Amino acid sequence: MVGKKLYCGNLVFGASSSDLEQLFGQFGVVESAQVISDRETGRSKGFGFVEMSSSEEAAAAIEGLNEKDFEGRSLVVNEARPREDRGGGGGGYRGGGGGRY
């Protein structure tokens, strides 16, 4: 069974969240659509996420849009995977002081 949250990759850099909403809307109710942007530049990273209202609609969107042309690029549409923990926490400094006597 397919989840309701989908990954959409290989987007043209000018694509907006509303473009995604319109594109996926032909397959059902879009609960949310977001094109991911670079934090520093604000430019699209070329991918986004769409949440459909049901698993059936999500499966239809994958079937209907994966490897299809959108503004000259072949889309990659599949079920979104859970976000991986990329660590974080600011480098290797462990704190604590050295002991001088």
UniProtKB/TrEMBL annotation:
<protein>
    <submittedName>
        <fullName>RNA recognition motif (RRM, RBD, or RNP domain)</fullName>
    </submittedName>
</protein>
<keyword id="KW-0694">RNA-binding</keyword>
<dbReference type="GO" id="GO:0003723">
    <property type="term" value="F:RNA binding"/>
</dbReference>
<dbReference type="InterPro" id="IPR000504">
    <property type="entry name" value="RRM_dom"/>
</dbReference>
<feature type="region of interest" description="Disordered">
    <location>
        <begin position="77"/>
        <end position="101"/>
    </location>
</feature>
<feature type="domain" description="RRM">
    <location>
        <begin position="4"/>
        <end position="82"/>
    </location>
</feature>
<dbReference type="InterPro" id="IPR052462">
    <property type="entry name" value="SLIRP/GR-RBP-like"/>
</dbReference>
<dbReference type="InterPro" id="IPR035979">
    <property type="entry name" value="RBD_domain_sf"/>
</dbReference>
<dbReference type="InterPro" id="IPR048289">
    <property type="entry name" value="RRM2_NsCP33-like"/>
</dbReference>
<dbReference type="Pfam" id="PF00076">
    <property type="entry name" value="RRM_1"/>
</dbReference>
<dbReference type="InterPro" id="IPR012677">
    <property type="entry name" value="Nucleotide-bd_a/b_plait_sf"/>
</dbReference>
<feature type="compositionally biased region" description="Gly residues">
    <location>
        <begin position="88"/>
        <end position="101"/>
    </location>
</feature>
